[in-house]
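Assemble and predict.
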Amino acid sequence: MKYSRRDFLKTAGGGILGGIAVLNLPPLLKDITKRNRGPSSLPTVSYAERSLEKSYWGFVCDNEKCIGCGKCVVACKRENNVPWEPEYNRTWVERYVINEDREVFIDSPNAGRDGFKAEPMNIKYKNLAVWKSFFVPKLCNQCENPPCVTVCPVGATYTTEDGVVLVDQKHCIGCRYCVQACPYGARYVLPESAETHFGQVKVVDKCTWCYHRIHKGLVPACVEVCPVGARLFGDLRDPKSQVSKVLKEKRSYVLKPDLGTEPKVYYIGFEKGVQ
Amino acid sequence: MDGFIYPNEGAIQWDLLITIYPYITGLVAGAFVVSSLYHVFGLKALKPVARFSLLTALSFLLVSPLPLVIHLGRPERAAEMFLTPNLTSAMSGFGYIWLLYLLIVLLEVWLAFRTDIVRYANASDGIKKTVYSLLALGVLDITEESILVDKRLIKILAFIGIPGAFLLHGYVGFIFGAVKANPWWSTPLMPIIFLTSAIVSGIALLLVMYVVVSKIRKVTLDHSCLRSLTLWLGGFLSLSVLLEGLEVFSMLYESEESWGILSKLITEKIPIGYFGIQFLAGSVLPLFVLGVVAIYKWPDQVKMVLAFMAALLVMVGVFAMRWNVVIGGQLISKSLSGFTSYTPPLLGEAGIVVAAVIVLLPFLIFAVLSHLIPPWQEEVKLREPKRLSF
Amino acid sequence: MKHLVRAGLLLAAILIAVFIVPRIIPQVVPTTSFLADYGFHRPNNAENEAEWASLPMQYAESSVCLDCHKTEYNLWEKANHRTVACENCHGPTKDHLQTREPPIIDTSRELCGTCHAKLAARPASFPQVDMNEMGGQAQCKTCHNPHDPRAGMPPKVPHSLDGRSDCQTCHNPHEPLEMIPPTIPHTLEGRTECLTCHGSQGLKKPVIPQIPHVLEGRGDCLVCHNAGGIKPFPQDHAGRTSVTCQSCHQSK
């Protein structure tokens, strides 16, 4: 049989294309069909058997209790070396003021870091016929279906087994697509002056639910210092944890449920107009 | 800042550099479509600009990664997009799409210019001969058979290059359109809107460049080519306006929660750029002018001037569209309760000067390329290739 | 077609370099090489997870303070401020443990006011006062023990009441607390009968009933305890609003 150059080229071309397909397609398919997890998708373990690796963390913010003192913001900045300036926040507190016409006014002076004393409502909202007002703590919702993880072009942000979304700052290229994709404004870019533990700048940072604390059996810093118990943290799969008990008893809601992000920060005290 | 924005939203993240990136890739897509109209669909009227538009597409394609890499927080890690792409991200496609499309365009340019390259290689000596020989990959003879094979390959490449161009620019539209967090961006129409306005800007660019370059070279324009460009420009422009109008009208009609802040965006924050430049000056007025040029029997010179001005307006209008989408979308807070503001700095990494340099760079590359391998079709048969001289 | 063959070879070389080589590298280099990191979607997040999990802590837990500060802790643990973590006022434990220097304790009115200043957006059941009135310019800890803020509240009258029927003869709300006689550290709204709260030593001791039920779900005392309600307040409480109830009546 005559094996011409043409046949050789055909074989070689086929070989290259085949090699590309074999080496690239299976990981591509695996990437696209990644499974989603939920608290019931893994077997419940009793409290005694609970180990930190098998937890499924949840967070509760109680709008009915928050007093807007801002201690959570300060503690978070100190615990995690977040830049002190108010443009960089892993967590913050918002104040909602609703007037008699049901118009909603929101403010967050310095992200709530210094409390709200400096802007008392009788001065700031002097001409408003205030009907009701309250505080809402905010932080990363560690979504179960995180849009930020989907859009990272290099896979630098990922979800851990216990449900926390982290950023590998050594591989983040600083494209800020995740900042655009987060519906809650939870992400920010570390400025050049930042001095974090990883020593990286101009990459993306966000709340990690104090991953280093929860892996030692403690609660995040913001939960630790909240003086009124407006922030709760625990293992959603443990029926005896604070969060499980509160969520079983009270009605809770999440922010922007219509976007399908499946947040794991549950809010008590729903009010129309909370964004 | 007026109203309420989340504390982390003070400064916008994707600035002027990201605004010019879709503008540049859009020009690539548009120029390539014009070239394919000739090579695939056989529109003879566009022959004078067929190779010209290929070189234009190549010049802009080479520059397109530049604004992206500069804008990255860590540009030294840019290669990670090739090495560890997360394929659920539309942005991760950039590296591969750009590379593959570059290979297609390079191959097509090479095949279209090969006869000329070989001729120049044989007619020159010294360094020039080495350069041309390298470009010809060392094959310095032309046979009738090879020309035929080349022509067929060009046709195939131009054919697969069309979806390639659509992908190159469409994925940018998808990057924005798939962000559910931003109501100004999130629509399935976004890739198509980006694409139609890209084609429009590309045709307009070619029209402008063709007129300018003909003036510089002091040759007469092929007015039937110009007419063809005018008609295609008008056609795609109508489609583009229709889609852009449909998108905003649909939002107005459905009046979802986000419509409150979005209507404030276009009526209070960016009304001049949106209604004034993008729609009126950049779309409606040029459509009117192009329509008039198509219908009335005026002298060719007059038509050329009118078409040229319409094309310039279109190019400005498409840039305004990119601005209104990219910057406008970031001016609104995700809390849907307020706005931030943005003025591009003059100097600095993300400044107007840098952006202007990046947009002008492809013209420089085009000048070099057209000096090296002149694309002018009409002289190939008539006389010695007339070099571009300044 | 010699030219096509050459072009094809060049193309093949580029495709192999871009698509095949990076996928093979992680399989062939040792795992300690930085190149081992490269494959689809970063195969090894465990290392980064471990890095995040092993960051140093600044804050500890309040129970850590018990080891050395038993007295304060035992007092604090049963009092109203037991929900306020020690580190809230005393700063992160790490600073203190490293140097063993006492942390700078902020005893200013501003610190107390961060939580207790009257703000309309705060829940009504949360104890808050008008900082411009309560206590004048004095530090809050002059009357309130920060570890047990309700202890000894309200303060008893430190002198006999013989010949002193009108309290305002000596006590002027506008003078500073340090002066004698001390000013009244609260408004007189709803408080016409001084002795109702302030029994004097030797004279009738004040009997202020504790609140015998939890306050959860009961933000407005007057819902039950109004004049025509389930358990109306006594006659001498007429004119008082819900806001002042908890300034005298402690909850359990």
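Chain A touches chain B through 49 residues (CB under 8 Å).
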